[in-house]
């Protein structure tokens, strides 16, 4: 096989597979290994694990692992065992990783949810994943108790907000973390193929689906993260990306701890807080989504006049490829900062492709080279034929980070994962002569709002419940600030005088803020193909022709 692989593109003509050009991964042969043990047992010289940007509270590595052990022991005493699901509803905090690592160390399964989700959205996830316990903060407690009145709750963040008396609160994280480890506690054997996380990806054709990732998936992801950043012991990362999301969870809540890095945690993104944290903590790495990078470029002179961000040497951008103008503009304004880009899905544990140097990022529009140990195929969606270099088709991925499948959804699993382990990404791509992946379009049609994924089908289904709407279609509308926002094309019922603001208010009352419709146009009929699928491309063309 080796001699047939083109060293330049990584393509093997005999099986039509593209192989990664990155250094191979040293995957652990020890099958009885959980991701928490894998991370905590790695040698490094780091001292501070986490810093809370708002309060300055530090968590050293020794305090972190002591707290993880205490929380794991307490959960064990509460009857949490391998395979049990535990829910975490919280904004970013330095306690978030403690909870995740403790749950996974027992072989229990962590499921996270977006704090912006509505009570209905949270209730839906709880009904699907059936957690035995939930961790949340005092501020989110009312939302959780409304979504699941009978679920036992452990309260986090009780130092800042004293706990409210509530019959469902069974403990506080603070008490659990102080628990002395017991030598005689018997641990269940956790294997690499056991499930570690149950994260919900945005569904494009209906409800979101629970993605099952194994300890093996997460361990491979951690190794890829470590190899990619060549992290020295004294690197400091700013974490504004949400920890409930695959990217935040595996990189910043868990993975980078294996390197001894320090992670400065912001509970939510705010430009001033982010920039002043870079200055205050001499941060070296900044992960962000393209709209934030664009804002840093557009306000570069004001930023450099007000903040000292000279410590910063790398920004990591994900979510959408950056244009030539943005990359060159940023390099011009911040000459000492390298732009790195990445591509991945919840279904591939956040891994897929990346650019690991400015030179690679300067292949404008690329998602980068395949991640280590990852293989790709470009497949013609109509004929199912696998295609060679420079041909456009659907990107399929295979490797150690590909999910186990969708939770309780055999049908969705078999339509996404084939019997040989290939994941159909739903992204239309080509791979060039040098092995770089270019994403042309999405088969899945998700709307990317500030890095959040918004499924149009969910909003369309909601619009159709309005008594004055006979049909509707939702499309991504391009926007410099946020990337894309949801725009609705609405067919009014005869005699209705429904207004744009009434449509927007109707949706806003029932979904998280990032899913709101921000533009409405009325149309006599929604264009569809013979099988009834909405021709979104035609509507996108119509909406953007006036731009």
Automatic annotation (TrEMBL):
The chain crosses the membrane at residues 244-266. Residues 42-407 form the AMP-dependent synthetase/ligase domain. Gene3D superfamilies: 3.30.300.30, N-terminal domain of ligase-like. Residues 458-533 form the AMP-binding enzyme C-terminal domain. It comes from the Eukaryota. The keyword Membrane applies. Keywords: ATP-binding, Ligase, Membrane, Nucleotide-binding, Transmembrane, Transmembrane helix. Belongs to the ATP-dependent AMP-binding enzyme family. This is 4-coumarate--CoA ligase. It comes from Phaseolus vulgaris (Kidney bean). The lineage of its organism: Eukaryota, Viridiplantae, Streptophyta, Embryophyta, Tracheophyta.
């Amino acid at each position: 096989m080796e001699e047939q692989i083109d060293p330049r593109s990584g393509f093997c003509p005999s099986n039509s597979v593209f192989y990664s050009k990155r250094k191979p991964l040293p995957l652990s042969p020890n099958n009885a290994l959980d991701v928490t043990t894998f991370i905590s047992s790695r040698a490094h010289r780091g001292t501070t694990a986490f810093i809370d940007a708002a309060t300055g509270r530090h968590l050293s590595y020794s305090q972190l692992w002591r707290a993880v052990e205490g929380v794991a022991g307490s959960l064990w005493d509460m009857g949490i065992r391998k395979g049990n699901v535990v829910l975490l509803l919280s904004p970013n905090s330095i306690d978030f990783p403690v909870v995740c690592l403790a749950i996974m160390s027992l072989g229990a399964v962590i499921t996270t949810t977006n704090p912006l989700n509505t009570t209905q959205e949270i209730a839906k996830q709880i009904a699907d994943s059936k957690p035995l316990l939930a961790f949340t903060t005092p501020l989110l407690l009312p939302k959780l108790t409304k979504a699941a009145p009978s679920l036992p709750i452990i309260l986090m963040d009780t130092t800042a907000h004293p706990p409210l008396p509530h019959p469902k609160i069974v403990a506080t994280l603070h008490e659990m973390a102080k628990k002395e480890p017991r030598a005689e506690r018997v641990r269940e054997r956790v294997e690499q193929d056991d499930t570690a996380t149950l994260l919900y990806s945005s569904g494009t054709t209906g409800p979101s689906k629970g993605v099952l990732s194994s300890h093996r998936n997460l361990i491979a992801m951690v190794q890829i993260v470590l190899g990619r950043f060549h992290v020295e012991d004294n690197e400091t990362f700013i974490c504004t990306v949400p920890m409930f999301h695959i990217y935040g969870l595996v990189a910043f809540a868990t993975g980078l701890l294996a390197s001894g890095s320090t992670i400065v945690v912001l509970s939510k993104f705010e430009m001033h807080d982010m920039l002043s944290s870079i200055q205050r903590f001499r941060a070296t790495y900044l992960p962000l989504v393209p709209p934030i990078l664009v804002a840093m470029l557009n306000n570069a002179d004001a930023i450099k006049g007000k903040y000292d961000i000279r410590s910063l040497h790398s920004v990591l951008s994900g979510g959408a490829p950056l244009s030539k103008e943005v990359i060159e503009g940023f390099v011009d304004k911040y000459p000492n900062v390298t732009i790195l880009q990445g591509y991945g899905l919840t279904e591939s544990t956040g891994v897929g492709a990346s650019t690991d140097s400015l030179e690679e990022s300067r292949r404008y529009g690329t998602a980068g080279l395949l991640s280590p140990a990852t293989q790709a195929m470009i497949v013609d969606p109509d004929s199912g034929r696998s295609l060679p270099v420079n041909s456009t088709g659907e990107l399929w991925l295979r490797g150690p980070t590909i999910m186990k499948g969708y939770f309780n959804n055999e049908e969705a699993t078999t339509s996404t994962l084939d019997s040989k382990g290939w994941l159909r990404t739903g992204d239309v791509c080509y791979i060039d002569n040098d092995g770089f992946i270019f994403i042309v379009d999405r088969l899945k049609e998700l709307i990317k709002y500030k890095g959040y994924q918004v499924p149009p089908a969910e909003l369309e289904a909601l619009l159709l419940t309005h008594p004055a709407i006979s049909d509707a279609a939702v499309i991504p509308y391009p926007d410099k600030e946020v990337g894309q926002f949801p725009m609705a094309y609405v067919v009014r019922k005869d005699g209705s005088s429904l207004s744009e603001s009434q449509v927007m208010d109707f949706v806003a009352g029932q979904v998280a803020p990032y899913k709101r419709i921000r533009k409405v146009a009325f149309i006599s009929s929604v264009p569809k193909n013979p099988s009834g699928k909405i021709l979104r491309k035609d509507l996108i063309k119509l909406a953007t022709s006036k731009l």
